[in-house]
């Protein structure tokens, strides 16, 4: 009988923790790095919104404090010339960071390598690079899950525990 009670209590505690993680939602941030056109920035934000929608992690509320901030770092640009068509190949890294807008806390980050090519200009190659981002990538699922878990853990800490952590980190004795 005691085993059943303990099992039910454990199940209740675990389900509360999982319910808390599922209630954490994010909004898509706008990329702020230089060298990215307004059109490319909007396309990148749309990709982040699609990732959030696919993982049931998005919200329409602008008052939400948790944001997924995208950053697209362009890497190498290669060009072929003299063939039938000139092709531009652009490589880069997409970095997503889950953070709190109010206090700047960062909870999780993921970086994925992407590449795109086109027979037109560099701006179209960047657009092709953004369009090659697969919203179904399993890395995004793990990223959302990890971010939610870390946010729930941070929210579960009591103010006394947070003060003790700050004292230990700051070297106060």
Description:
With 173 residues, the protein is an alpha+beta fold. It is 46% helix and 25% strand. The protein has 5 helices and 4 strands. It has a 4-stranded mixed β-sheet. α2 (38-54) links the parallel β1 (27-28) and β2. α1 packs across α4 and α2 (38-54) packs parallel to α3. The longest helix has 21 residues, at 2-22. The protein is elongated, with a radius of gyration of 21 Å. It starts with a helix and ends with a helix. The relative contact order is 0.15. Mean pLDDT is 80; it is low at 12-21 and 169-173.
What is the rounded distance between the termini? 47 Å
Please tell me the overall pLDDT. Answer: 80
Helix count, DSSP H or I runs of 4 or more residues: 5
Strand content: 25-35%
Helix content: 40-55%
Largest sheet: 4 strands, mixed
List how many beta strands DSSP finds: 4
Whole-number radius of gyration? Answer: 21 Å
Globally, the shape reads elongated
Q: Order of strands across the widest beta sheet?
A: 1-2-3-4
Q: Ranges with pLDDT <50 over ≥5 residues? A: 12-21, 169-173
H/E series, N to C?
HEHEEEHHH
Overall structural class, as computed from helix and strand content, comes to alpha+beta
